[in-house]
Amino acid sequence: MSNEPQETMAPSLTPLPWQQPEWRRLLEQHKAGQMAHAYLVAGEQGIGKFQFAQAFARYLLCQRPGAELACGECTNCLLGINGFHPDITLIQPEEGSRDIKIDQIRAATAFIARTSHSGLRKVIILNNAHHLNASAANSLLKTLEEPSKDTYLFLVTARADSLPATLRSRCQRLVMPTPSLEVAMHWLRAKGVAADQVESIALAAGSRPLHALTIVESDGLVHANEFMVSLAALLQRTASIQTVVTIAMKIGDSVAVEYLLQTSSIVIRSLLTNETEHPDSLKALAQIFSSFEDRTGLVKRLLLFNLAAEKSQRQLLGGTNPNAQLMLESLLWQWSSLYTQVSGKQTTDRDGQHR
């Protein structure tokens, strides 16, 4: 099964606050009669791409749409209030499977051939479309090559570049933004996240609000804070790599790699801009890094670490099933080595022993 955090929220008629420009773009195309038959909705995991596709699908099916939103009161709007509508079909990896399979695409083809329930339009949403296997992708390509009138496809993906180029070329791309930390925090407060936790949660989620909600719902902040503390301890050589790996596995391999990626990015920005204000979860790390005299060397090492974390993230989200524990051990060894490489002091071996 996929390691990816899922975007889960009740279906809505409205886009999320940071999606307004993309929403208006689609509205303008729709009103001008210039909508493409297929859209590639791309962007980071956990920012609401699937919710955007759902909301616009409901707008397309609304019988009395307003200037910008579905009415919420017509038969079609009420029919889709629980996320199920006979003129919308959702395709995503089935439970227990990593792939979107050819039988699912064949079912979508049959859906396209049927007359719409409402006499209006039909919409297909492929969630996590990068999980299409080769046969399914080829089958979908045939559908895209012969578009059906009043049928629209939204391919939602956090890894657009992993889709076959032939598929990408037949879709209009909508790149969905990741909100700023401030916007993410404001939205999370409105969702009821405690004021004293919202910054740490938004930071841990990399400003991805829906991913942040999953952290809250799973009580993941406790483990996230424990992991951040352990990263500081590893630099100070008061914790071993194996200890930190054990903590990392509590929050999940892909989430731990994401934290490493976000943390290194924030530290780099802090060093380059001389920021002095840091969220509580990063204060210990910020204090350690601020004590380094060779900041130029530190930034270079952090940039290399950041590249390694990005590579690990791609592998974990791909279909190669890498050894997550070995990958984390390698990254954490590089992390622990930052102190030595810049300061000249001792570091730890990969088994956690000081040297």
Molecular structure report:
It contains 15 helices and five strands. It is α/β, with parallel strands linked by helices. It has a five-stranded parallel beta sheet with strand order 2-3-4-1-5, with helices on both faces. The longest helix is centred in the C-terminal third of the chain and has 23 residues, at 295-317. It is elongated.
Number of domains: 2
Task: Report the principal-axis shape.
Answer: elongated
Instruction: From the alpha carbons, calculate the radius of gyration and give it in angstroms.
Output: 23 Å
Poorly predicted ranges (pLDDT <50, ≥5 residues)?
A: 346-350
CATH superfamily placement of the largest domain: P-loop containing nucleotide triphosphate hydrolases
Question: Strand portion, in percent?
Answer: 5-15%
Number of strands: 5
Secondary-structure element order, N to C: HEHHEHEHEHEHHHHHHHHH
Order of adjacent strands in the largest pleated sheet: 2-3-4-1-5
What is the CATH architecture annotation of the largest domain? 3-Layer(aba) Sandwich
The percent of residues in helical segments reads: 40-55%
Task: For the record, give the distance between the C-alpha atoms at the N and C termini, rounded to a whole number.
Answer: 39 Å
CATH class placement of the largest domain: Alpha Beta
Mean pLDDT: 86
- Report the sheet with the most strands, covering strand number, pairing sense and barrel closure: 5 strands, parallel
The structural class is alpha/beta
Number of helices, counting only DSSP H or I runs of 4 residues or more: 15
CATH overall fold name of the largest domain: Rossmann fold
